[in-house]
Inverse folding.
């Protein structure tokens, strides 16, 4: 299952967050590492002043495993939100909607 994680952290904690993140993901098999990671150039929602917002999309067998991976990053000072993603093929929205409607 794919998850999007959104991390919000103070700029002055960036070094600690980066170190914790590198340590967490270095211990994961390549298949479970994020496909991509981004630091947003603008903020799509309110965050405290002088904060950075990072977004990553990764695979995991369960939300519990994803939470265990994110926990050390939270201990370093980040606020994390983990969002399960439902993959809908391009051009297949109507078919997916019908499937999940029941």
């Amino acid at each position: 299952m794919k998850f999007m994680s959104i991390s919000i952290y103070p700029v002055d904690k960036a070094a600690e967050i980066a170190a914790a993140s590198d340590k967490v993901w270095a211990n994961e098999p390549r298949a479970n590492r994020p496909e991509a990671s981004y630091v947003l150039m603008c903020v799509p929602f309110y965050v405290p002043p002088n904060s950075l917002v990072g977004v990553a999309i990764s695979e995991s067998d369960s939300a519990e495993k994803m939470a265990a991976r994110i926990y050390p990053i939270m201990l370093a000072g980040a606020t994390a939100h983990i969002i399960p993603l439902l993959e809908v093929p391009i051009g297949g929205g109507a078919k997916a909607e019908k499937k999940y409607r029941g």
Notes: The CA atoms of residues 9 and 78 lie 5 Å apart. Strands lie at 2-10, 36-39, 51-59, 79-85. The first strand starts at residue 2 and ends at 10.
